Amino acid sequence: MEALRPRIEEIANELLDVWQGAEEVDVIETFAHPLPCTVICELLGVPKEDRDEVRKLTAELLAPATMAEAYGRFTAYAERLVATKEPGDDVITELRDQPNLASTLVLLITAGHETTVQLSAAACSPCCAIPR
């Protein structure tokens, strides 16, 4: 984990740079959501172009009205990713041959991303907009 620190700090700083000159900042949308999503996706090997969809699927998976359908779509996405992803320096490459990897990915992404977002949101003001 210590080896990840410089990259996580780099991601955090990139997200904070966006706040420069802003009159108001939505901490949840501009920091609390993208930071853990980016970190977990990079660690696992989820392509950058898929991250908005992964974030959307995670949110739908946690909503009772969309949970069952979202789980099916998320698992199908993870299965496609495992089957088609080019090898790299990531968890998916390391675990590619493990049974139930797609389901494990859904769990890791959801737990790793949403838990961190919710903890960050609990620490923010109710509106999560901070005047500058």
Tell me the CATH architecture.
Orthogonal Bundle
Q: Would you tell me the overall average pLDDT?
A: 87
CA-to-CA gap between the ends? 33 Å
Shape: globular
Strand content: under 5%
Number of helices: 7
Top CATH class? Mainly Alpha
Name given to the CATH homologous superfamily: Cytochrome P450
Q: Which strand order spans the largest sheet, edge to edge or round the barrel?
A: 1-2
| Rg from alpha-carbon coordinates | 16 Å
User: Major sheet, described briefly?
Assistant: 2 strands, antiparallel
Helix content: 55-70%
List the helices and strands in order.
HEHHHHHHE
What is the third-level CATH name, the topology?
Cytochrome p450
Spans where pLDDT lies below 50 across 5 or more residues:
128-132
Alpha-beta content class: mainly alpha
